[in-house]
Amino acid sequence: MYGSGSPLLAFFSSVARQLPVLVVIVVGLVVVLGRKSSHPKASNLAAAGLAVSLLSGLAGAFFYTLAPRLAESPGGIAAVYAIAGVGFSILDACGLGLLVAGVVADRGPR
What we know:
This protein is elongated. The chain is 77% helix and 0% strand. The chain has one domain. The relative contact order is 0.16. The chain is mainly α. The N and C termini lie far apart (54 Å). Helix 1 runs antiparallel to helix 3, helix 2 packs antiparallel against helix 3 and helix 3 runs antiparallel to helix 4.
């Protein structure tokens, strides 16, 4: 699939597969930023987490579209995918961590 045909088509097909998640992230950003005045710290953390997740998804689609051109051998491309997979997993974990921090921020003691 990757490496054959137009790179632009490969990019858009990667984004299309992620479209439901990207829509939820964008709607979440709108909701979170709309609540910023009543919960500033929580909204900032949640917005940062959603922004990291959005950038990770789009950057991943862009990277994996270009990845087949980064290495010549099958072993080389496997190494590129492995390293990128770890990197994008770390970005996803950071986004999720910021979202969790936003959930528990601005809460008073019980």
